[in-house]
Specification:
InterPro entries: MFS, MFS_dom, MFS_trans_sf. The chain has a single domain, classed as Up-down Bundle (Growth Hormone, Chain: A). It contains 20 helices and no strands. It has 411 residues and is mainly α. Residues 1-14 and 406-411 have low confidence and may be disordered.
């Protein structure tokens, strides 16, 4: 029965796959704004709540690492659900996880249970994995020439998430005294429920069963040099953003800065992550995705340099802002490159596999970040960021040189 519902006329709409494009993109943008607050709340509070509840300071960032593990672990199942039942069903499952993370986190704070908070953040990662598929869903529902702009427009909804998330923390963290942040997590659950009500109206076509059966094996697609470059740049862009943002709130606290200052820094970081989305699609259309990705990687490198210049609050804020813009260019550009690596009938499998690779690597970096911060300090975290960054820049440059030789007329 659920499968038949997924193939209803509104969902399949094979006669005109772009019939609901404007409504879909608008709803996905609004949902991105609401759902994106989930990740912001977890990143702003995860290390701090972890430090409050964990038996050891070295485990303070474990909840954020588990959040990223949830993103990686649930990327492939989310793609399978979308392939079998339609993207809208996957969205509903994801927002259900979003409500659950808020309720479980509040209970964990009230009961003082570190393990339960870790379980909650895993569901938060599952929710975030589904939310990040919004960008590909937007690209699916518009003509190919409009895909970069649709993808970046939905990502622009994260600007509102960048405001909602930190303000949610600031104005609700002490509402349920003496349980700091319990009220924040209850509010987060309510925002996730509101997002679900928006996503109910999204209607996207599914590939026919025979089309999906004709898709190439995922290992064949993954071996393409184009896919390796796209996924690699996506990995590094997201890895370094998470690597630094995971540690930044706790690093600011260790340097004597207030929670309010930390919240404001995360707020501007998230705004910087999504604000460029209003024109990133145009930049990609005009200059090409590889050049935009390269610009993002270079901005990320600049953010690391600023972080090494000092530990004043302005250094942290500027580092986070540059890091956000660098992530936007790098990740959206890499996502656009992924769209060029698969056929229509392969999209759900390839896109979910790409996200699995990205978030699997990010989970490793998240674990490494927390241990490095507590053992060696903020500067060590920053210095190590140069290793994957330089490798990604070299790989992208090599790919472009090969592409130029193969297609001399391409600039």
């Amino acid at each position: 029965m659920p499968h038949n519902d997924a193939l209803s006329s509104t969902e399949s709409a094979s006669h005109d796959p772009y019939a609901n494009s404007k409504s879909n993109v608008a709803r996905l943008t609004i949902a991105q704004a609401l759902s994106g607050a989930n990740a912001v709340v977890v990143y702003a509070t995860g290390a701090i709540v972890g430090n409050m509840l964990s038996p050891s300071q070295a485990l303070a960032t474990l909840p954020i690492s588990i959040f990223v593990i949830g993103m990686a672990a649930c990327s492939l199942p989310a793609g399978a659900i979308a392939q079998r039942y339609g993207r809208r069903t996957a969205f509903m499952v994801g927002t259900g996880c979003g409500v659950l993370v808020g309720l479980l986190s509040a209970l964990a704070v009230v009961q003082g249970l570190f393990w339960l908070f870790c379980v909650a953040t895993f569901f938060g990662g599952a929710y975030a994995a589904v939310v990040l598929s919004f960008r590909f869903a937007a690209a699916d529902c518009v003509p190919p020439s409009q895909r970069p702009r649709a993808l970046s427009l939905v990502m622009a909804g994260g600007i509102v998430a960048g405001v909602i998330g930190p303000q949610l923390v600031t104005y609700t963290m002490n509402l349920w005294a003496p349980y700091t942040f319990a009220g924040t997590f209850m509010a987060q659950a309510a925002v996730a429920a509101l997002s679900a009500s928006i996503l109910v109206g999204v209607h996207l076509p599914n590939p026919a069963a025979e089309e999906a059966a004709n898709g190439r094996p995922i290992r064949e697609i993954a071996r393409q040099p184009e896919f390796l470059t796209a996924a690699g740049c996506g990995v590094v862009s997201y890895l370094l953003m998470n690597f630094l943002m995971t540690s930044a709130p706790l690093a600011m606290r260790m340097c004597g800065h207030s929670q309010e200052s930390s919240n404001l820094g995360i707020q501007w970081h998230v705004i910087a992550m999504y604000a460029p989305s209003f024109f990133t699609g145009r930049l990609i259309t005009h200059f090409g995705a590889p050049r935009v990705v390269m610009g993002g990687l270079l901005l990320t490198g600049l953010s690391v340099i600023v972080g090494l210049m000092g530990v004043d609050i302005t250094h942290f804020w500027l580092t986070l802002i540059l890091l956000g813009v660098g992530w936007n260019f790098g990740f959206i550009g890499a996502s656009t490159l992924v769209l060029e690596c698969h056929r229509p009938e392969e999209k759900n499998r390839v896109q979910s596999f790409n996200d699995f690779v990205v978030f699997g690597a990010v989970a490793f970096g998240s674990f490494l970040s927390g241990g490095l911060l507590t053992a060696y300090g903020w500067n060590t975290v920053l210095w190590l960021s140069f290793v994957p960054l330089v490798l990604a820049i070299l790989a992208l440059a090599r790919s472009e040189v090969k592409r130029g030789r193969a297609c001399p007329g391409v600039t």
